[in-house]
């Protein structure tokens, strides 16, 4: 790749020749389209991108991008992606995973890649169900929900991906909704540009086994009143009429209406995604309806040294000081004698 | 010097034994290294307890280190010791059964008191009589604690620090007993403690006092002389453990192939020293990821392999079990990866510090589906270097996972190693895609060897999608066609089978006209060679076929084995290699000699068994 050449791509350059085999109406299509648009916008050549996945419906995604792709085994995508990125930090590495792959069988790898802050872009497709195995509850399924493996309703408490990410000291968390293409692309672009593990929770609809799981915000007529798209440095305004906002009330967030009780836009919280302290990010990410809007967009994005950079830096530091450059140098360091 | 006599020996076995904190490993290592410098053949074996620090003076905390010196070629750390150094009564009790008749026991008489006897479970005041060995052994009592205390009088150390140097007093005594000048030991100590001058000074003082103490004992005990060996090929040597040799073999392969070395691993006894060695080699650009678990160890290595590195994971039996599914992924994705299993006692957690060969069938067959991988095994501590190097070469040149089996015995044991030069080692040429092949499928392969062409992210024009799903032989796309699946299964098998063309043929050691063939594999090489050599010297017609390549087997395996009337397969398990051979070599009745005690064979037990069989 010549450094001087400006790389101009379109989404088409990132489409593979494979027929996409998700169910008609699956939310994954929209995420794939958004991803291909974002890849084009990033200007990274397809051959410098590696898309790594585990097992599940969403994990089929690598077959549909024209980059290098690796569809691995259940739950281990994060570990494979870590190896890819550490081995070659120049690559743009995307990890595609689902709520089962990432948070059940792959939970350990997920928290540790986040903890290490490996420079990965993680698209976590959350449809709150196991689709590929045909309809069992997942670690994000709401308590009480009836599925094939919970005919009387689940008795399990679900995970919130954001809470896990922050608990693992995550440096980036964003949330998008499959059908909201604009926010989706903004989130993915920010994730790609952020150095470190960028976790993007993609709320996707499973038309077959959990249709309408995100309907409360997915239905267009009410969406503006039920989500808040956070933007760094901007006041937290939402609503069809842009008249609602968030303020701090004691330790908690509260919805207020601009123009009522002396509230103006200046009274509202201003989003700071770059704040090291994740307390407010957590509160924003944990908001639930019907009293609160669901937070979308980039909730947290802070800079910290990445694992792959740290590995490289330490090698360079040791190499600068060591006299051992080759295998023969190494052999020469042995306590040795003639026989 | 005032001594009665010096006995010349062809070889001698010394075992140092004490609490895990007594520094027996260091004492033994120093003694073996300085003997090697004087021209002796050496082989050592440490025997650690599983407990980190069991209560002081108890049987559970006894740690040993055995050294075998020879003036001619030796192959094992020896069976029973001629000289036993014990730092407390517990160490005596643990080792009493194995001391040779007429052997010498040097013991710290300061620990041979009521409290020491109680902790070791002795019921009388005379443990030697209680063990029934007082008539058959020679005793050298030395008040090691008190002598060390007086040696360091005036150094200003607290008592605990002073007593830590007790092992140096014992080393001095042993140097006297074996007529070893202590200059070389002092040189080693100077290297080891260069950053701690006061500790160095103290250790040198105690060592010297120990040596002089022996000199002035005026005992009627004969000292030993083991002459230098003239059987080893001339050259520069060091003493190396199997785990270190393994790590260095990987480093050599990385440099030879021009690839970055990546290790994904998780700490596990007795394999972790490989990770330690590699983590220290950042100067050579080695990337070590200490993963969150065994699975991430191998899967991150598979990721590194996908990205173009020489990728390795190290483990022991329980870890190999956890890595099974991922090895299957490497089989399916046809990616090069080296899996090193330093075998230990199993099943489950088993006996983590003890040696066994019980993972063979797991390595061969422990995966779902038709999942062939190359399986090989190193035979001695020093040849771990060669086989680690070859494992990398085969993985890279044949695009396959390679499982290299070593074990706790050769991993922790040491032997002499002739220092290699990189230029002397074989070339490693991975099967990369070539210019002009742009757009080729992920399954494109050389039709003769069935080896897939390797392209890695970053190469323009070779973007592809790999994965664990079955692929179409021609297009590389995911496929469930029945006949295609069978074709792919056969191609992956043929690729592994083809490796047999690149490995040496089986060679027979021992009598050319033998009636009986002994078969072994991996880390038992030293014991089997010694037993067969001894029997040959006694005029018995017996030969040895030792395997380092197991899957595929050397080309001439069937023909060689079928030549013998009687065949006995010896292994540290219940008969796993015998089972494998029965499936590969028709028309042969395989007898078995098995031992599953967490301990290596002894040469004596092998000789007895073979003599009975013949």
The CATH topology assignment of the largest domain in chain B is Pyruvate-ferredoxin Oxidoreductase, domain 3
Q: Provide mean pLDDT of chain A, rounded.
A: 96
Continuous helix count of chain B:
21
Report the CATH superfamily of the largest domain in chain B. Pyruvate-ferredoxin oxidoreductase, PFOR, domain III
- Pair with the most extensive interface? A-B, 57 and 72 residues
Number of strands of chain B: 23
Strand content of chain B is 15-25%
Largest sheet of chain B: 8 strands, mixed
* Structural Rg of chain A: 22 Å
Helical content band of chain B: 25-40%
Ranges of chain B where pLDDT stays below 50 over 5 or more residues in a row are none
What do we call the CATH topology of one domain in chain A? Answer: Rossmann fold
Please give the CATH class of the largest domain in chain B. Answer: Alpha Beta
The shape of chain B, in one word, is globular
Question: Which ranges of chain A are low-confidence, i.e. pLDDT below 50, for 5 or more consecutive residues?
Answer: none
The proportion of strand residues of chain A reads 15-25%
The average pLDDT value of chain B, as a whole number, equals 94
Radius of gyration of chain B: 26 Å
Strand order of the largest sheet of chain A: 2-1-3-4-6-5-11-7
Measured between the Cα atoms of the first and last residue of chain B, the distance is 50 Å
Describe the protein's architecture and organization.
The complex is a heterodimer of chains A (339) and B (614). The longest helix of chain A has 15 residues, at 28-42. By secondary structure, chain A is an alpha/beta fold. The radius of gyration of chain A is 22 Å and the shape is globular. Chain A has 11 helices and 12 strands. Chain A has a domain at 11-218 and 303-311: Thiamin diphosphate (ThDP)-binding fold, Pyr/PP domains (Rossmann fold, 3-Layer(aba) Sandwich), CATH 3.40.50. Chain B has 614 residues and is α/β, with parallel strands linked by helices. Chain B has 3 domains: 6-226, Pyruvate-ferredoxin oxidoreductase, PFOR, domain III (Pyruvate-ferredoxin Oxidoreductase, domain 3, 3-Layer(aba) Sandwich); 239-424, 3-Layer(aba) Sandwich (Rossmann fold); 508-613, Rossmann fold, CATH 3.40.50.920. Chain B is 36% helix and 20% strand. An 8-stranded mixed beta sheet of chain B has the order 7-6-5-2-4-3-16-9, sandwiched between helices. A 7-stranded mixed beta sheet of chain B has the order 11-10-12-13-15-14-21, with helices on both faces. A 5-stranded mixed beta sheet of chain B has the order 18-20-19-22-23, sandwiched between helices. The longest helix of chain B has 19 residues, at 197-215. Chain B is globular and about 85 Å long. Classes of the chains: A alpha/beta (339), B alpha/beta (614). At the A-B interface, strand 1, strand 2, helix 2, helix 4 and helix 10 of A face helix 1, strand 9, helix 10, helix 12 and helix 13 of B. Strand 2 (68-71) of chain A pairs parallel with strand 17 of chain B.
């Amino acid at each position: 790749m010549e450094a001087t050449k400006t790389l101009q791509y379109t989404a088409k350059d990132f489409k593979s020749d494979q027929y996409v085999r998700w169910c008609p109406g699956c939310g994954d299509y929209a995420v794939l389209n958004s991803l291909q648009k974002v890849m084009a916008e990033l200007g990274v050549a397809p051959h410098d991108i590696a898309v790594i996945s585990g097992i599940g419906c969403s994990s089929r995604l690598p077959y549909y991008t024209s980059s290098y792709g690796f569809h691995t085994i259940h739950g281990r995508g994060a570990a494979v992606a870590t190896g890819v990125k550490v081995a070659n930090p120049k690559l743009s590495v995307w990890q595609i995973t689902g709520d089962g792959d990432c948070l059940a069988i792959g939970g350990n790898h997920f928290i540790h890649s986040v903890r290490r802050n490996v420079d990965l872009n993680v698209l976590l497709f959350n449809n709150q169900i196991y689709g590929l195995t045909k309809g069992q509850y997942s670690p994000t399924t709401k308590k009480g929900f009836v599925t094939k493996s919970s005919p009387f309703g689940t008795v399990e408490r679900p995970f919130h991906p954001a809470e896990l990410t922050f608990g693992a000291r995550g440096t980036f968390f964003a949330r998008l909704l499959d059908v909201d293409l604009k926010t989706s692309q903004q989130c993915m672009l920010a994730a790609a540009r952020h150095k470190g593990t960028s976790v993007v929770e993609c709320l996707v609809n499973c038309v077959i086994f959990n249709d309408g799981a995100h309907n409360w915000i997915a239905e267009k007529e009410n969406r503006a009143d039920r989500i808040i798209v956070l933007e760094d440095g901007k006041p937290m305004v939402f609503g069809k009429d842009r008249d609602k906002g968030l303020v701090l009330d004691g330790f908690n967030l509260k919805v207020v209406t601009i123009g009522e009780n002396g509230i103006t836009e200046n009274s509202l919280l201003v989003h700071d995604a770059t704040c090291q302290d994740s307390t407010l990010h957590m509160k924003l990410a944990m908001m639930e309806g019907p009293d609160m809007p669901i937070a979308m967009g980039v909730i947290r994005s802070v800079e910290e040294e990445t694992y792959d950079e740290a590995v490289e830096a330490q090698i360079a530091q040791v190499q600068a000081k060591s006299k051992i450059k080759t295998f023969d140098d190494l052999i020469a360091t042995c306590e040795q004698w003639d026989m | 010097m005032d001594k009665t006599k010096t006995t010349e020996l062809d070889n001698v076995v010394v075992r140092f034994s004490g609490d895990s904190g007594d520094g027996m490993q260091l004492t033994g290592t120093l003694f073996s290294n300085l003997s090697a410098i004087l021209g002796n053949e050496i082989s050592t074996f440490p025997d650690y307890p599983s407990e980190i620090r069991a209560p002081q003076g108890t049987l559970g905390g006894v740690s040993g280190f055995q050294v075998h010196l020879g003036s001619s070629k030796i192959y094992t750390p020896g069976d029973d010791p001629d000289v036993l150094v014990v730092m407390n009564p517990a160490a005596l009790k643990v080792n009493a059964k194995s001391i040779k008749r007429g052997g010498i026991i040097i013991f710290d008489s300061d620990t041979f008191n009521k409290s020491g006897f109680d902790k070791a479970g002795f019921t009388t005041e005379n443990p030697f009589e209680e063990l029934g060995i007082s008539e058959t052994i020679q005793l050298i009592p030395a008040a090691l604690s008190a002598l060390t205390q007086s040696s360091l009088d005036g150094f200003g150390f607290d008592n605990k620090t002073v007593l830590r140097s007790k092992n140096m007093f014992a080393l001095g005594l042993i140097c006297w007993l074996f007529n070893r000048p202590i200059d070389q030991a002092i040189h080693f100590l100077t290297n080891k403690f260069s950053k701690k001058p006061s500790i160095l000074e103290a250790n040198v003082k105690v060592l010297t006092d120990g040596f002089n103490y022996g000199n002035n004992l005026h005992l009627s005990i004969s000292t030993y002389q083991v002459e230098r060996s003239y059987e080893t090929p001339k050259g520069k040597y060091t003493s190396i453990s199997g785990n270190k040799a393994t790590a260095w073999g990987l480093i050599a392969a990385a440099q030879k192939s021009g690839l970055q070395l990546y290790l994904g691993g998780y700490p596990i006894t007795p394999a972790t020293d490989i990770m330690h060695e590699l983590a220290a080699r950042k100067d050579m650009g080695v990337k070590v990821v200490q993963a969150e678990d065994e699975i991430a160890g191998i899967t991150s290595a598979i990721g590194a392999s996908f990205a173009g590195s020489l990728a390795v994971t190290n483990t022991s039996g329980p870890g190999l079990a956890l890595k099974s599914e991922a090895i299957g992924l490497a089989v399916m994705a046809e990616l090069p990866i080296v899996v090193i299993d330093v075998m230990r006692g199993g099943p489950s957690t088993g006996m983590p510090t003890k040696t066994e060969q019980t993972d063979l069938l797991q390595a061969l067959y422990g995966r779902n589906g038709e999942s062939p991988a190359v399986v090989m095994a190193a035979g001695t501590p020093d040849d771990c270097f060669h086989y680690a190097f070859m494992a990398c070469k085969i993985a890279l040149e044949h695009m396959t996972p390679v499982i290299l089996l070593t074990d706790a015995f050769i991993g922790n044991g040491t032997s002499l190693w002739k220092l290699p030069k990189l230029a002397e080692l074989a070339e490693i040429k991975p099967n990369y895609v070539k210019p002009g092949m742009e757009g080729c499928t992920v399954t494109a392969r050389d039709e003769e060897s069935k080896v897939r062409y390797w392209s890695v992210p970053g190469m323009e024009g070779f973007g592809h999608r790999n994965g664990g799903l079955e692929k179409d032989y021609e297009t590389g796309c995911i496929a469930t066609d029945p006949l295609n699946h069978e074709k792919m299964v056969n191609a992956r098998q043929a690729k592994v089978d083809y490796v047999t063309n690149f490995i040496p043929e089986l060679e027979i050691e021992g009598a050319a006209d033998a009636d009986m063939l002994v078969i072994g594999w991996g880390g038992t090489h030293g014991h089997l060679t010694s037993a067969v050599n001894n029997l040959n010297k006694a005029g018995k017609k017996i030969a040895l076929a030792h395997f380092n390549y197991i899957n595929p087997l050397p080309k001439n395996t069937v023909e060689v084995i079928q030549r013998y009337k009687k065949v006995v397969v010896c292994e540290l398990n219940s008969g796993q290699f015998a089972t494998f051979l029965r499936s590969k070599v028709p028309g042969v009745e395989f007898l078995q000699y098995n031992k599953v005690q967490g301990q290596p064979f002894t040469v004596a037990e092998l000789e007895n068994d073979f003599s009975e069989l013949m």
